[in-house]
């Protein structure tokens, strides 16, 4: 699995820059202007290559485990415009998130049914049996091209094994080592992300919302 670090300010807050002087006299600016009219989220670099503001793309995420980390991850995503479907064995934790705008469900099967395809499910549980059992259950409920994210402290060899096992079922596995504690809701989370490129890029709008912004860490 490849690994990458997310810096939201460098990756996702680039402002629109007009084409460089070398583009004058060409059709680059009119062409990009037409593209931008069709897709307002489009911007371009000085070389004239278009890119997208990932934070203008809103996603749906299933979250399992609503402790101090999992619950606040859901809250931070909702504050940035994403929607969440949440599950925890503790009914009070589910109800608290439901009152704040999440869709709370009673079990894993209901969570999978509530998500649009291709699905993405973030598991935020203690390492070991709780995470292993949950991922095994999800692997039987999800379908090809869905993504399972493990945000806990799993031993890296278990991550490698899971990625191989899930790939045989057509599922993607993304390991996201997450730190930020109780301050993550306000300041954002530091993430070390491992997974295949296609799956990670699909989830980029979520990572952009969760990552710290400029000046948010003292």
TrEMBL record:
An example molecular function term from Gene Ontology annotations: NADP binding
UniProt-listed SUPFAM superfamilies: NAD(P)-binding Rossmann-fold domains (SSF51735)
Pfam families reported for this sequence: NAD_binding_2 (PF03446)
6-phosphogluconate dehydrogenase NADP-binding domain mapped to chain residues: 61-211
Coiled-coil region(s): none
Disordered as annotated region, ranges: 1-28
InterPro entries, per the entry: 6PGDH_NADP-bd, NAD(P)-bd_dom_sf, Pgluconate_DH
Name of the protein in question: 6-phosphogluconate dehydrogenase-like protein
């Amino acid at each position: 699995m490849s690994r990458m670090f997310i810096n939201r300010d460098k990756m996702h807050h680039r402002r629109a820059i007009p084409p460089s002087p070398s583009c004058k006299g060409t059709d680059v600016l009119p062409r990009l202007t037409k593209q931008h009219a069709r897709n307002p989220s489009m911007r371009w670099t000085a070389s004239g290559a278009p890119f997208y503001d990932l934070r203008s793309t809103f996603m749906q995420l299933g979250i399992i485990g609503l402790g101090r980390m999992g619950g606040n991850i859901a809250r931070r995503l909702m504050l940035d415009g994403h929607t969440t479907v949440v599950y925890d064995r503790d009914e009070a934790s589910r109800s608290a998130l439901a009152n704040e705008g999440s869709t709370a469900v009673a079990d894993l099967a209901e969570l999978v049914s509530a998500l649009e395809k291709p699905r993405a499910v973030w598991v935020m549980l203690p390492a070991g049996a709780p995470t292993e059992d949950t991922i095994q259950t999800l692997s039987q409920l999800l379908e090809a091209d869905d993504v399972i994210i493990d945000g806990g402290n799993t031993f890296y060899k278990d991550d490698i094994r899971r990625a191989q096992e899930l790939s045989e079922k057509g599922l993607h596995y993304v390991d996201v080592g997450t730190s930020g504690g109780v301050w993550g809701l306000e300041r954002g989370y530091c993430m070390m992300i491992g997974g295949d490129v296609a799956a990670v890029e699909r989830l980029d709008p979520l990572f952009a919302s969760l990552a710290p912004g400029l000046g948010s860490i003292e």
